[in-house]
């Protein structure tokens, strides 16, 4: 496999800032989106089936392939030499392609592809990672350019690859390709329990599909976390592209999978994201209502079951309620929320929230 020059490492996007004018009169911020948005999409589906097989069954590979895989793992995990690890993984993959006993669509061969693609991604070689993950996806979904029926763990692995490809295409601003993979992953999960799976760009179809309550019986290899992760990934994509009418029903559908909502702090995360969508749509009343609902849930959550996600979600909800108040022109209330967000964030060592809250307070005090 030919090596390509490494692209520039991807940099984290700078948070959105408010545009303010220095006058004696306070000016409401003009941007509808939050500079600090909590979007914790479940990652179980991306990981499930992608790496577990590879690490637990190296001994099953033919000897020459096994030797190179072990060297790759050694240089990646113990010698901190990822470049040499890449070389060994590439050699192992080429040997697997030329081994008559191994099918390119098998977990053994796609496992090597996934390991190599993951290492490329860690190194910032996003296009190389994209090429290898696409190769693995195509080998599973369309071997010999012929679509096949997928089921069980193989299907879940292909869905995880589709989500990963969506993420990588999105990072390269290739929106059409990203949307294609995100939608495919949702379609496959919905088909697995006989829900209507044909997504199109008609708002009514989306609302009917994702907002209705359905008593679902999932196949044994799939969980509600898997389905929710796929819905959230697509919703987050649409929200980041300001396609709020598409994002909203997906978030609502993901929330409906947590029953009852009070059983998980992740419900509050979704409520926060729904609030963000309504803010983007200019409906501050509904945005405030959803944020307050999420805050109430996380504040009343069972203390013994609270996780880091619960604490961070509370901080972000306080901050976002401050922003909604600021957008509504209630500077006093906004300041109170920002203060609460900053104090909580300091207590739980949540630096991003501390920084954003301090910037917001500084902005208010300057006007």
TrEMBL record:
InterPro entries assigned: Mrg3-like, TPR-like_helical_dom_sf, TPR_rpt
Superkingdom of origin: Eukaryota
Gene3D superfamilies per UniProt: Tetratricopeptide repeat domain
Keywords: Membrane, Transmembrane, Transmembrane helix
SUPFAM superfamilies in the cross-refs: TPR-like
Key word Methyltransferase present: no
Calcium as UniProt keyword: no
Transmembrane segments: 31-54
Name of the featured protein: MalT-like TPR region domain-containing protein
Source organism per UniProt: Glomus cerebriforme
């Amino acid at each position: 496999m030919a090596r390509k020059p490494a692209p520039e490492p991807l940099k984290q996007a700078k948070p959105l800032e408010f545009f303010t004018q220095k006058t004696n009169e306070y000016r409401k911020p003009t941007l509808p989106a939050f500079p600090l948005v909590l979007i914790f999409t479940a990652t179980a589906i991306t990981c499930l089936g992608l790496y577990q097989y590879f690490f637990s069954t190296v001994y099953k590979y033919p000897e020459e392939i096994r030797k190179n895989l072990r060297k790759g793992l050694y240089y990646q995990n113990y010698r901190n030499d990822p470049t040499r690890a890449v070389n060994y993984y590439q050699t192992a993959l080429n040997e697997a392609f030329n081994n008559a006993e191994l099918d390119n669509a098998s977990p053994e061969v796609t496992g090597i592809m996934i390991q190599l693609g993951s290492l490329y991604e860690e190194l910032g070689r996003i296009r190389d990672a994209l090429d290898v993950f696409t190769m693995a996806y195509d080998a599973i979904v369309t071997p010999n350019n012929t679509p096949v029926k997928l089921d069980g763990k193989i299907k879940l692995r292909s869905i995880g690859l589709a989500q990963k490809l969506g993420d990588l295409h999105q990072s390269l601003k290739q929106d059409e390709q990203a949307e294609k993979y995100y939608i495919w992953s949702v379609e496959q999960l919905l088909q697995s329990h006989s829900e209507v799976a044909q997504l199109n760009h008609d708002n009514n179809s989306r609302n009917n599909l994702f907002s209705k309550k359905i008593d679902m019986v999932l196949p044994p290899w799939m969980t509600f976390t898997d389905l929710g992760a796929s819905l959230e990934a697509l919703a987050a994509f649409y929200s980041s592209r300001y396609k709020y009418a598409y994002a909203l029903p997906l978030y609502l559908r993901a929330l409906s999978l947590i029953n009852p909502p009070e059983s998980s702090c992740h419900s509050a995360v979704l409520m926060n994201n729904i609030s963000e969508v309504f803010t983007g749509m200019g409906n501050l009343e509904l945005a405030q209502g959803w944020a307050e609902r999420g805050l109430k849930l996380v504040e009343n959550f069972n203390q013994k079951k609270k996780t880091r996600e619960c604490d961070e979600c509370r901080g972000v909800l306080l901050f976002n309620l401050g922003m909604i108040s600021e957008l509504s022109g209630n500077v006093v209330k906004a300041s109170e929320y920002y203060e609460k967000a900053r104090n909580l964030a300091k207590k739980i060592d949540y630096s991003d929230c501390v920084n954003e809250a301090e910037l917001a307070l500084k902005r208010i005090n300057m006007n």
